[in-house]
Amino acid sequence: MIRFAGRRLLQAAAVLLVLAAVLYAVFYLAPGDAAQLACGPRCSTAQVAQVRDQMGLNDAVYVQFWHFLQGVFAGHDYSSGNGTVHCPAPCLGQSYRTGDLVTHVIAEKLPATASLALGAMVMWLVIGVGTGLVSALRRGTLVERLLTGFTLVGTATPVFITGILLLLVCCSWLRWLPYPTYVPLTSDPEQWAWNLLLPWLALALVEAAKYARLTRSSLLETLAEDHIRTFRAYGVSEGALVRRHALRGALASVIALSALDLGTMFGGALLTETLFGIPGIGQQLVQSVQLKDLPVVVGIVLVMGLAVVVANAVADVLYALADRRVVLA
Questions:
Q1: Which among 204, 229, 234, 278 is least buried, having the fewest CB atoms inside 10 angstroms?
Q2: Closest CA to 54 of 31, 74, 77, 24
Q3: Angle at 94 between CA 266 and CA 304, to 5 degrees
Q4: How far apart are CA 97 and CA 284, in angstroms?
Q5: How far does Cα 232 stand from its chain's mean position?
Q6: For residue 246, which of 256, 237, 259 has the smallest C-alpha distance?
Q7: How far apart are CA 42 and CA 54, in angstroms?
Q8: pTM of the prediction?
């Protein structure tokens, strides 16, 4: 297992290095003058040339990329009107528009996205896995058909439609909840949870349908395997079969998928953040793209890629823990 986890971590590091190179090429070597964007539209030619020299854009491409990697792993010093500003590792640059360090911008927005992603994941696992288990164990009954219909509706409904319906029903018509306003967890935990309840539900209802279908199909497939039939022939009760033998194998794919979805969600549930006014990194990414703030765009996309790569590595390890046959592959 240790060797297996080590291989996955090395693969993740290699993927991140390639991702950094691709991001650097796309955003810094694409048509357009980064020095002009950093300096502003009113800068003279001499001022733009000075900014270009300060940013190291006159160096060779490989030298620029090496300096970018040095900033990520060892930090970087930036000259400013008041002297030199030190950007500690991992340094992703400075915002062209505000001059703030990109890591500070991301650190300010990340807790909101993390709150949204983690809370939604708990909800979609509880709803989705529970629905899938009941649907598999009540196969052929009216309950199974109703739950199957629920999963079909959830899969076909976009998250912004679900969110709008929740706002209309819970906030406008029934007035069960106030319109969501993000409150940091450290300020007021109770208000933090109440204001995130509808965004969590909007994401969870859509994702839960996928997990319900996956749990149902995986459990039915596991219950049809030879060793389960053997246990059943020896008189093992159906409840013990499900709890001790079938459930672990059936949930292996659910564990892997949930880790991957969590990593993707950390990348920013853009529609949900926009609909409910959550100041996460998804909203920040859209604003930075509109303002052509390239360092912030690169930093956020790199963090999104890091979340997905780490989630993939964690998913592989968790899948191997659930099904030890994977380690031997």
A1: 234
A2: 77
A3: 15
A4: 13
A5: 41
A6: 237
A7: 18
A8: 0.83
In this structure, the number of other CB atoms found within 10 A of the CB of residue 42 comes to 6
The string of DSSP codes covering 256-295 is: HHHHHHHHHHHT--HHHHHHHT---HHHHHHHHHHHT-HH
Digit-coded pLDDT (tens) for 113-155? 999 999 999 999 999 998 888 888 888 888 888 888 877 787 7
Please say whether the beta carbons of 324 and 288 come within 8 A. no
Query: 263 with 308: CB under 8 angstroms?
Result: yes
Structure tokens at 114: 């993390």
DSSP character at residue 246: I
What phi, psi does 162 have (nearest 5°)?
-60, -40
3-state secondary structure of 78: strand
E strand or H helix that includes residue 77: strand 76-80
CA Rg, the chain, in Å? 25
Residue type, 196: L
Which region holds residue 35: left if phi is over 0, alpha if psi is between -120 and 50, else beta?
alpha
> Could you identify the residue written with the tokens 């529970």?
130
Alpha-carbon torsion (183, 187, 191, 197), positive or negative: positive
